[in-house]
Specification:
The protein has 3 domains: 244 residues, Glutamine Phosphoribosylpyrophosphate, subunit 1, domain 1; 204 residues, Glucose-6-phosphate isomerase like protein, domain 1 (Rossmann fold, 3-Layer(aba) Sandwich), CATH 3.40.50.10490; 144 residues, Rossmann fold (3-Layer(aba) Sandwich). It has 20 helices and 26 strands. β12 and β13 form a beta hairpin. The radius of gyration is 25 Å and the shape is globular. The model has no long low-confidence stretch (mean pLDDT 94). The chain binds 5-amino-5-deoxy-1-O-phosphono-D-mannitol. The site of 5-amino-5-deoxy-1-O-phosphono-D-mannitol (M6R) has 16 residues, from α10 and α18.
Length: 616
Amino acid sequence: MCGIVGYVGTRSSVEVLLGGLKRLEYRGYDSAGVAVIDDHGHLDTRKHAGKLGILSDDLVATPLTDGQTGIGHTRWATHGGPTDENAHPHLGDEGKLALIHNGIIENFSELKAELLAGGHTFASQTDSEVAALLVGDAFRESGDLTTAMLSVVNRLEGAFTLLAVHSDQPNVVVGARRNSPLVIGLGEGENFLGSDVAAFVEYTHHAMEIGQDQLVTIRPDSVEVVDFEGTPVSPKTFEVNWDASAAEKGGWSSFMAKEISEEPEAVAKTIIGRVHDGLVDLPEVTALGADVLSSIDRVLIIACGTAAYAGMVGKYAIEQWARIPVDVELAHEFRYREPVLSPNTLVVSISQSGETMDTLMAVKYAREQGARTLSICNTQGATIPRESDAVVYTHAGPEVAVASTKAFVAQITAIYLLGLQLGQARGTLSPERARGLVAELQSVPEKLSTVLATGERIKELAHWMADTRSVLFLGRHVGYPVALEGALKLKELAYIHAEGFAAGELKHGPIALIEPGQVVFVIVPSPRDPSSLHAKVVSNIQEIRARGARVIAIAEEGDVAVLPHADEVIRIPLASPFFEPLLAVVPLHIFGMELAAAKGLDVDQPRNLAKSVTVE
Ligand code: M6R
């Protein structure tokens, strides 16, 4: 949840840290702080509650004596409220050591009691300060930061990334991770640590993964990684395939606006290079082996939030194309009920960040139970892909706004590619049918660009509804997860009551919510679809309209049957049923963003949230 950056080299560390924190602020924005070892070997810190801007302004008004080694932190509060005292860094060894932490130290009460008994006092209510004091004490014994950190990490329970600096070792930053993200950026005469590559992509594209329970020591000219037993390990390196500019607003009013505009590209880039001779070719999946693919008798999709809705859309497609039963489960509910898994179960996790703790733990559990695991992920070097047997990357580019948008359409695209690959491999899709579906998927980016053009009208509607206190969303079949996604966006961005329903469920209860003036978005299936769903949803619209609802229909071009029944119709291009969600969701993303903007809210950093939920 928190953003972490570390630097050692020749540049101004304050500049590197603030730049890195700016790009990591989406991970948490309750407070921020830095610790720098200055040119005189003195350690200084500055930290403030509130957004990063408060810290940066203060550092401009009253600069720290700068140096070339430092650590920085942007916080999403867990233990202790968002106050100056609870902001990181925390200090140990009488102010000579500074430490930052992401995660939760579950046994902090016992450790704190021990430290209090030993005469320590605490300056904050955080669990993190325990680690600062312990590493500080250990440094006093060994005089070496790596040794000190190693002696402490095995005493900590829970999830953590820790970075520390000590004024007695001015050119060293030490990091450690367990179930929480940390990557290394490799430079020339300088090295970096970050919660993700955004922390250092401005300076280097050359990166290195750190595994679970590993510890890294960076100096300007060296990087050493050991496991928690102290045994050296050789981590994998990788090249970051996007530029710092991809994580900048680039003239847009918000990251969210920019990322919505990138939805066509997110779909296109996720398909590129994965279609040969009109058929899907995912070596990542075929590498699992033909015998494995043919023996899969169940797919279980695990994910949270928006990623779970992408998984729900994927369920319909995989079942239809590959004829394998698919269940979708919220990752946090999964491992606490002894789920039934077998080696023939393919567990597919979906995560934009690749760091969501609930999803990570579910993947680990599934592996322990003998299931095959495949992750769909947007972030290189992230933990979930590393913990899975196979990974299909989405190529949406960095997603900075807390509300997920372009990642959603990229996730659906990736899971469709997986469904098509499975259908091809198992012979449940004829090559002709598969080619037709692939061609239609490839046509989606252009259609998405058309949908983006409806943005102005949606903005008008959103501004007109700025005082609305409740909005409902209805959909059926693949339109149902789209309804859930529309509602989630409104909740997290505009802080109003919003709910998504399966349209068929209405008369089983939710229709009682309808009163005059209630706004209801309805995702209308295509009238060209041979199923009778279009007629059924139009009947649902009539039922709610008869009770006073104001209906905004999202319907395909040429659907005239819906016109008499809707107060407003937002048009999407013609597409067969499975491809409608990719188009219908865009107006809902725009609506969520515009309604929040109309209320004067921060659409990129909604209250109480963080982009990447790395605690359970
Ligand atoms: O990084 P992940 O895809 O694993 O994140 C999952 C959810 O936390 C995320 O989709 C969340 O629901 C978004 N804020 C929704 O916009």
